[in-house]
């Protein structure tokens, strides 16, 4: 076994230090939000510098968030949009990606040109709203699902992944009598688990965090997703503070409430990510390896 030189050990040590520092810089903001949401409002306002533990442990911020009767309704609406949205996203994106990945598709390059064009240019907000309203989707949860059913970047990413599957598998399946749907759902998709995991994460996070489309398309509060309900809670807290509430109330409504809403909105995604992490890096790099 060759003895490692001083320069090699110094290089490894520097890399270890740099990666450790990067990890701390990445994780600390999340740790800060958690500790701040569990802190006493007045104590948090008086605290200066780094936050290494809750300042006067208190669950008042979470109590104020969940005291709103619309929170559970918002969770239900968001889960509805995420589940049905992901189903539409994966189905339509995989169908489009499979068709565009076939070399036998006529005018494939021209079709891709029109699709890529939509990444850089759009009709604008007003035509988008009028289109959604014109087809009867306004004030329905489908307005949060159908208009965003296919994302151009995700389509290109999945198309690139499908192109990496050997043509021999498709040819063998066709010899055995398989049609395109059988090839897609029984061969191509099972071999594309990394990119499917990435699609689930990209689309899922997009649906979970989406609030702007809900703001412009939904009028009934009973349909509001979680993010819109949390936005209302924050705006209400700021409004109450501006109306002259006591100092403690101001702290609660404008500081700890903000951190509690961040945790409420983020935890479900953080719980899902570990199950997709092993596929995520490989799937996300597919588009960078082959155009």
Automatic annotation (TrEMBL):
GO terms for biological process: transmembrane transport. The chain crosses the membrane at residues 12-35, 79-99, 111-130, 142-162, 183-205, 257-276. Keywords: Cell membrane, Membrane, Transmembrane, Transmembrane helix, Transport. It is found in: Cell membrane. InterPro entries: MetI-like (IPR000515), MetI-like_sf (IPR035906). It is a multi-pass membrane protein. SUPFAM superfamilies: MetI-like. Signal peptide: none annotated. PANTHER family: ABC TRANSPORTER PERMEASE PROTEIN MG189-RELATED-RELATED (PTHR43744), POLYGALACTURONAN_RHAMNOGALACTURONAN TRANSPORT SYSTEM PERMEASE PROTEIN YTCP (PTHR43744:SF9). This is Carbohydrate ABC transporter permease.
């Amino acid at each position: 076994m060759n003895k490692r030189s001083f320069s090699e050990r110094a290089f490894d040590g520097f890399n270890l230090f740099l990666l450790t520092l990067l990890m701390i810089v990445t994780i600390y903001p999340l740790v800060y939000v958690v500790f701040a949401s569990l802190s006493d409002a007045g104590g948090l306002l008086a605290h200066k510098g780094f936050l290494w533990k809750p300042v006067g442990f208190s669950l008042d911020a979470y109590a104020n968030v969940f005291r709103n009767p619309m929170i559970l309704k918002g969770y239900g609406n968001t889960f509805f949009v995420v589940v049905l949205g992901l189903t539409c996203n994966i189905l339509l994106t995989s169908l489009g990606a499979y068709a565009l990945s076939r070399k036998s598709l006529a005018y494939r390059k021209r079709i891709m040109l029109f699709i890529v064009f939509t990444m850089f240019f759009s009709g604008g907000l007003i035509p988008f709203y009028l289109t959604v309203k014109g087809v009867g989707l306004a004030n329905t949860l489908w307005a949060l699902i159908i208009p965003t059913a296919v994302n151009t970047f995700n389509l290109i990413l999945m198309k690139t992944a499908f192109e990496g599957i050997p043509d021999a598998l498709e040819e063998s399946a066709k010899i055995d009598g398989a049609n395109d749907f059988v090839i897609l759902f029984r061969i191509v998709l099972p071999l594309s688990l990394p990119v499917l995991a990435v699609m689930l994460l990209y689309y899922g996070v997009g649906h979970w965090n989406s609030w702007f489309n809900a703001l412009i398309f939904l009028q009934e509060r009973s349909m509001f997703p979680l993010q819109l309900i949390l936005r209302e809670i924050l705006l209400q807290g700021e409004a109450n503070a501006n109306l002259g509430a006591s100092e403690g109330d101001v702290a609660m409504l404008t500081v700890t409430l903000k951190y509690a809403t961040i945790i409420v909105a983020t935890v479900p995604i953080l719980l899902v990510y570990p199950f997709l992490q092993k596929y995520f890096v490989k799937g996300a790099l597919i588009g960078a390896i082959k155009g």
